[in-house]
């Protein structure tokens, strides 16, 4: 049946043409924009995912800039610390040269002062965009990542770069009001040159022989005709060993062995053979000649906090060290060693050692007795990592000797600082490389979600253009069909 009111063929052709035109518009849009999902109406779920990922990519690009800034800052600090290490090594060479007495120590000291000024200049200039990692104690955080959890929450991650204070600041002692005296214990009230003694006693010298061992050296003495002759022979034999710092004298019929070795205990053992009467060392078969140095020991269980201040009083003079952030008992003991060494006290030498988990500062004095005490208090301002550098003075024998220990401690500090910065720079570089790769992966992932397949879109466009032409022709044919009805009325 034909109708002039309803042309179903035209309606079908029109709907087909509209569908073709819509698809053609979509294909043209994909070709023009390069995207298969350009807006939320194209595919809401995919569009939402792509936008979240695009925001992450934008964030990671900003993180790359942060890492580049952080890497440059740390690189400047590392170069500064390495330069300081080289300059300190030069100073060490000067100090070694000053150990000779027939050199012009005044000129050597001038060179050391010039190198010290150069170190201070390097530390002051080692900054990038106003941030100096060689001064102060506050850590610096470098933004390294944005971590998105499964619930959509985002947290920032940082790489913490620890400042390495290479200033020469003395620091400020205490002020917090809390005593730390229990953390630092002085072994005796004085440090002097008397040394340690062991008394050798023989009750009879009728015959036989006596064996005396001092450390790794042993002498054998035949019993003489009398106790006095035997004691004299023992004394002569001990002195004949030529052991540094060890001597024997006769006192009240006994042989008194004295050791003035500063940092070494010497074991003493005795024995009698061949019928000789017993020989004793302080009443027994063995004894110990103790080291002359006195000890200041830091408790193995005590924590070390930023601003903890410790003081050793020697001969009425206070020698202070104030711990910085992250420092240990070793740092405190070595800091006090540096402080005392910088004092240039004639005859005083020090050594830092660890025993049974505790760090100890041993102080020896070859001169008259000096009073010794130790205490501590919290709340101070930390001493600089090169604390003691400005006190190096090689113009005297005592100063030249003390400077050797001081410079070794300072070199260790600068090497540790450079190593810390090197590790931090390497980590930042690794993270920057990862962030670059991650950004590329995210960008590729976004592309796989929303980018158009241009080959497919091109082929589909040509097909749809043909369909459009056919649709127009079909509509034209459908619209001509009612014209045939007119012939029935002619």
Count structural domains: 4
Which spans of ≥5 residues are poorly predicted at pLDDT below 50?
Answer: none
Provide the gyration radius in Å. 44 Å
Q: If you consult CATH, what is the topology of the largest domain?
A: f41 fragment of flagellin, N-terminal domain
Strand ordering within the main sheet = 5-15-19-18
| Termini gap | 19 Å
The number of helical runs is 8
In terms of structural class, how would the helical and strand content be classed?
alpha+beta
Largest sheet: 4 strands, antiparallel
Give a count of the beta strands, DSSP E runs of length 2 or more: 20
The CATH homologous superfamily of the largest domain: f41 fragment of flagellin, N-terminal domain
Global morphology: rod-shaped
How much of the sequence lies in strands comes to: 15-25%
- What is the CATH C-level name of the largest domain? Mainly Alpha
Q: Do you know the CATH architecture of the largest domain?
A: Up-down Bundle
Q: Give the integer mean of the pLDDT values.
A: 86
What level of helicity do the residues show?
40-55%
């Amino acid at each position: 049946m034909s109708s002039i009111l309803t042309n179903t063929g035209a309606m079908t052709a029109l709907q087909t043409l509209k569908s073709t035109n819509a698809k053609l518009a979509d294909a043209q849009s994909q070709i023009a924009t390069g995207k298969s999902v350009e807006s939320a109406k194209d595919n809401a779920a995919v569009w939402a995912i792509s936008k979240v990922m695009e925001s992450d990519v934008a964030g990671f690009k900003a993180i790359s800039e942060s890492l580049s800034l952080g890497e440059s800052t740390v690189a400047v600090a590392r170069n500064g610390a390495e330069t300081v290490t080289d300059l300190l090594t030069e100073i060490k060479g000067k100090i070694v040269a000053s150990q000779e007495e027939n050199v012009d120590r005044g000129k050597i000291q001038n060179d050391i002062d010039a190198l010290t000024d150069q170190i201070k200049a390097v530390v002051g200039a080692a900054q990038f965009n106003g941030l100096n990692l060689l001064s102060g104690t506050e850590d610096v955080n470098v933004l390294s990542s944005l971590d998105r959890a499964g619930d959509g929450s985002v947290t920032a991650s940082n790489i913490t770069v620890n400042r390495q204070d290479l200033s020469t600041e003395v620091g400020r002692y205490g002020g917090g009001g809390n005593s730390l005296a229990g953390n630092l214990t002085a072994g005796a009230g004085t440090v002097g040159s008397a040394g340690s003694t062991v008394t050798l006693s023989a009750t009879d010298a009728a015959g036989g022989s006596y064996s005396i061992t001092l450390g790794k050296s042993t002498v054998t003495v035949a019993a003489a005709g009398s106790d006095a002759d035997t004691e004299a022979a023992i004394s002569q034999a001990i002195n004949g060993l030529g052991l540094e710092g060890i001597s024997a004298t006769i006192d009240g019929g006994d042989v008194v062995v004295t050791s003035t070795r500063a940092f070494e205990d010497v074991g003493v053992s005795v024995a009698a053979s061949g019928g000789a009467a017993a020989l004793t060392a302080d009443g027994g078969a063995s004894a110990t000649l103790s080291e002359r140095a006195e000890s200041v020991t830091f408790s193995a269980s005590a924590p070390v906090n930023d601003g903890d201040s410790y003081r050793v009083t020697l001969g009425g003079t206070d020698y202070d060290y104030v711990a910085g952030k992250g420092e240990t008992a070793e740092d405190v003991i070595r800091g006090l060693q540096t402080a005392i060494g910088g004092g240039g006290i004639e005859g005083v030498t020090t050594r830092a050692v660890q025993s049974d988990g505790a760090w100890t500062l041993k102080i020896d004095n070859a001169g008259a007795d000096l009073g010794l005490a130790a205490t501590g208090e919290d709340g101070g301002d930390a001493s600089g990592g090169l604390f003691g550098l400005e006190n190096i003075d090689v113009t005297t024998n005592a100063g030249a000797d003390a400077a050797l220990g001081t410079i070794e401690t300072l070199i260790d500090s600068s090497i540790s600082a450079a190593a810390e910065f090197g590790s931090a720079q390497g980590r930042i570089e690794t993270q920057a490389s990862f962030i670059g790769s991650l950004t590329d992966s995210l960008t590729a992932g976004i592309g796989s979600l929303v980018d158009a397949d241009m080959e497919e879109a091109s082929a589909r466009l040509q097909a749809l253009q043909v369909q459009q032409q056919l649709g127009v022709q079909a509509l034209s044919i459908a619209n001509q069909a009612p014209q045939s009805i007119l012939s029935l009325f002619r």
